[in-house]
Design goal:
three-stranded antiparallel sheet, about 130 residues, disordered N terminus, mainly beta, about 55% strand, six-stranded antiparallel sheet
Length: about 130
Amino acid sequence: MRHVVLYLFLLFPLTGYAAPSDPTCAVEAETYNSKEVLCAIPQTAEPRSYEFTARFSGGHDDTRASIKTTLDAKPLACEDGSKKELFGEDGDVSLLCRFVVSGMSGNQSQLRVTIRWSHAEYTDFRLAGP
């Protein structure tokens, strides 16, 4: 019996830890040239980096696209190297926003992204985490 209790005691720390879940996204609204995407990002104790990407095909000299981002209903400034708008780019093109969600325990953060485009074909979006 002592061995069973010891085994359970040793096993508990391994099963008590739950890794944070992945973010989930859904399209809330869309038109022929825009999409409103809402993503739930689980809070963690440590800050985590993310990258939201929107892709398009068929870009040409008058293609225009942009993304507008908010986190928890506040404007989200994307990190250096991000690309939130484009104009006149040919072929397969994309926009991206790199950002960090501060480490906090508790609820999840809400990322809202408005994607707009003209003279291109929207293909997809992706939110990638650590």
